[in-house]
């Protein structure tokens, strides 16, 4: 049973740290607006209204992941959000390297990987869902 405790602790810290990091992107969108997101969405041929989904994907979903409410649905939303980031912001140079030798699309791929872990493992013991 000790390993289950470590598993739950690991999921809690994964959710907490990831959620805070991803939420910071959403707070930036709230503070500075999403005009650049609208431009990318429209320039790719999609309707502008899709750009408002960034608020769900970068504000609501990370908050739900942090508190452990609907973690699988929230993870799926963030996976879709990150896939859109890959398509819109990194599509032309998806697997390229930056000037420091790092992967251009490193963060979106990391976000997708973390969300896949949460999607398959759930929120663990320390979550709001356990309180209902």
TrEMBL record:
It is a multi-pass membrane protein. Keywords: Cell membrane, Membrane, Transmembrane, Transmembrane helix. It is found in: Cell membrane. The chain crosses the membrane at residues 12-30, 50-70, 77-97, 109-128. Its main location: membrane. GO terms for cellular component: plasma membrane. It comes from the Bacteria. The keyword Membrane applies. Belongs to the DoxX family. This is DoxX.
């Amino acid at each position: 049973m000790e390993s289950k405790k470590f598993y739950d602790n690991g999921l809690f810290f994964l959710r907490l740290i990831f959620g805070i990091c991803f939420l910071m992107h959403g707070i930036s969108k709230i503070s500075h607006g999403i005009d650049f997101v609208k431009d990318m969405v429209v320039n790719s041929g999609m309707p502008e209204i899709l750009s408002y989904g960034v608020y769900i994907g970068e504000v609501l979903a990370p908050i739900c992941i942090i508190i452990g409410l609907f973690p699988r649905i929230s993870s799926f939303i963030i996976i879709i959000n990150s896939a859109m980031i890959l398509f819109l912001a990194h599509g032309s140079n998806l697997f390229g390297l930056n000037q420091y030798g790092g992967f251009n699309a490193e963060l979106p791929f990391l976000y997708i990987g973390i969300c896949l872990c949460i999607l398959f493992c759930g929120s663990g013991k320390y979550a709001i869902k356990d309180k209902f």
